[in-house]
Amino acid sequence: MAKEHILVVDDEEDILELVRHHLARDGYTVTLAATGEEALKKARRERFDLIVLDLMLPGMDGFEVAKALKAEPRSASVPIIMLTARGEDADVVTGLEIGAADYVTKPFSPRVLAARVKAVLRRRAREPVDEGQVLRTHELEIDMGRRVATAGGQALELTFTEFQLLTVLARRPGWVFTRSQIVDAVRGSDYPVTDRSVDVQVVGLRKKLGRHGEYIETVRGVGYRFKESP
Fold first, then answer.
1. Is the domain 134-226 a CATH 1.10.10.10 member?
2. For residue 216, what are the β-bridge partners?
3. DSSP state, 229?
4. Which residues of 184-215 are buried (b: 16+ CB within 10 A; e: fewer)?
5. Percentage of the chain lying above the pLDDT 70 cut
6. Are the CB atoms for 140 and 212 separated by under 8 Å?
């Protein structure tokens, strides 16, 4: 079951409860907010994997909230699905230009929304890597282009899968990846890999990282994350 944390923002209580029910049934952790101001406060306190955001809110409207979320480092990369009765082309274009990942109009099918959520989270886990990028975190350095990783200045002899796994986790310190997301990001959604095989790969990678292996943290019942820098 998925364990991603989703923030749902809407001023209609029945809509909040409807979305919460269906997302929770799919295994997601769901937090609710009835105003844009409340949503921003929660986004500053907690880390979310995705935000479902209504446009027609009291006080700050959804466009203003989305702009504020994208302007803050903690929430800038969190995908937003806009859920609203405003379905005009101009509104859709504005939402997408702000950085929304998807746009669902009311009235909506909860099953369709759940499918959109799953699709956005899947795409997020498989975002393309900048081959010229060099990641530096803690005492690790990962050169994407040369496919070379070092820990404490020492070169690591990693397999293709181990290098991909390290890259997926290290690119987003603090973010929790489910085993299925890791499989999708490393090998693709059609690759026949079991949860157990992901655990085996993590064990092998930790062993090669030595004392740096502690940076890969197990989130019980969910998956793995890379430790955030202090």
1. yes
2. 226
3. P
4. bbbeeeeeebeeeebeebbeebbebbeebeeb
5. 89
6. yes
How far apart are the C-alpha atoms of 128 and 117, rounded to whole Å?
A: 19
Average pLDDT rounded to a whole number, residues 7-36: 94
For the record, the structure tokens of 169 come out as: 């986790």
Q: Which residues, 6+ apart, have CB-to-CB distance to 230 below 8 Å?
A: none
Grade residue 230 by pLDDT with cuts at 50, 70 and 90: low
Specify the pTM.
0.60
Hey, is 145 helix, strand or coil? coil
Burial class (CB in 10 A: 0-12, 13-18, 19+), 13: exposed
Superfamily name with CATH number, domain 5-125:
Response regulator (3.40.50.2300)
Q: Is the pLDDT of residue 189 over 70?
A: no
